[in-house]
Design goal:
- The complex is a heterodimer of chains A (about 500) and B (about 120).
- With about 500 residues, chain A is an alpha+beta fold.
- In chain A, helix 1 crosses helix 2, helix 1 runs antiparallel to helix 3 and helix 6 packs across helix 7.
- Chain B is globular.
- Classes of the chains: A alpha+beta (about 500), B mainly alpha (about 120).
- The interface between A and B is medium-sized, with 23 and 22 residues.
Amino acid sequence: MKDESLPLIPPGDHSQSHDEIAAEIADHLAAAETELTKRGVAADDAKAAARQKFGDVEKIQKTCYWIQNGETIMLRWTLIALASALCLLLALSVFGNWRSQTQLADEMGKLSAELKAIATAKQTPAPPTPTQPPEITGVVYSGSKDKPTAGAEVAILKTDGTVVRRMKCDDQGTFRSGALEPGDYCVTAPISSAPPVYSRWAAQSQLLIIHGGSGNVSMALDTAFHCGGIKLAANRDLPEFRKDGSYLVTSRLWVSVVPSRKRSHLWTSEQKTPAGWPIYCQATQEQAGLGRMRSLTDQEEDDLVSGTSVYPQLKGREAFELPLNYMSQTGPGRFPTGETDITLELLLTVLPLDEKGDVLLTTQRFQDRLQHSPIPLGSTSFSVPWSKLKDDRGSMFLASGGQIWVDKLAGFPPFSTDQKSAPRSPRQKIEIREDLDALLEMEIPSDLEGHIRKAIEETPNAAKFNELISQGLLRRPLKIAAIRYEPMGK
Amino acid sequence: MPTNPDLLRGSLEPIVLEVIAGGATYGYEIAKAIGEASQGKLLAQEGTLYPALHRLEKKGWLAADWDVSPEGRKRKHYRLTPLGKKQRAALRAEWVEFSRMVNGVLGMERVVVGWVS
């Protein structure tokens, strides 16, 4: 029986595949025949039986061949068909080209004549498209965009702090800088709704980059002073004790608050980029330095600009709100919202006592002689009254002529006179929010007074220390960094 | 009882894989193993085995090597490829599920719905 559904194996195709299939089937038939013969079947009968048991040899051979080679054969025929079609197309194309040659020659003649006419015609160049120099456009608002700041004075600055343009916003709080050269710019506008302390401050926008082809840059600047408060609480009263006829130890808390969004000067590209925008800064370089409060014992000038120092006698765990620390103004301290660096230090001050038991305040005008001033017994303040400093503005007062920096008492090593070795208390970060006072909790060691007394009277440096006290020369704080704090809400 | 060729068509390839996995390697040996296992009811015509073998080889489930038989004939030996081994496992699982389903439909299997303690 022949199977007509499959094409015949191509005549003369003795490929390995075809031969292999034939060999495989032949092996099958021979093996079957051998086995039948072994069972006693006659050779001819065995051969016939094997073929019968196998089925249609030719059909199976053909099927196997197509399983192995069908794809290749089909591909081959497809390629042949495609090649034939291409040949036909090529022939038609050649014929068509030959026919169109004459027509093409005529058309070329006409085109040449037209091109010649065009080439000789006078050509007028197209007018250049005017390009508009880029500018900064924006809106200034206070708190929310539905509260535009009409008439706000806006300054456009380069990132080196140079003011390149000043203008006023219109009634809608909008402004246009006018054409600007390519470069990096910022926009400032006076902050609104701020405490009087910040009346001269400005909100500074993020970096605005203008380059050729950038087009106009639009921006929005919120000038509202978003701020919050900070409260302090301690596990007990701040230490204070005296040794009659010798010294009085008082303590105060030194707090440095450095908000990431507050700068003493305008931000420039030379400075570290703030964590958030806008930032609040003093509007002009000329104003920088105004409004600083300088404590007689504060050493870190950078912190003074953005920070505050307080001298509260903390009572137990009663929360104490950090006050405004600015000139003679009073009120709660207000700090810009966002990430803020906090440093807390307990400063102990050793005050020499005179023979009557009064505290001797030793002050020294710059390059002048020491002046000893008694402070009434019981007074915990050691600061020179502001009124007195005001009268002598321009002079530098030192709280002591002594140059000893007692750098570390917390671990109670021997006193050091090496100022450079004074450790800095670690800064930690809190988040100031508008709707919640951050609470700083400080822990004062229970036996701190005992440790201090021992350090003053029993360490190897005690003799030198007592000598300085007796001479009224020791008026520097002992920094104690035994403090921890946790922001409220944690 | 002659086997229905429609039933055989779908089941021959898994059977071949099983027989080769069981040790049979060349055509006649494979055919003989299938015949013995089914009392001659499967593979009534031994030749139908070869298209299945070649399909499996084409799929890459089987690989083949040529050798010489004791009688001196060329002989093709088949073996499972790693892919073939994976497919064999998959086909077994399919077959178990399929036969269970068919048995269920034919009422030849009862589903256990409770425990007898």
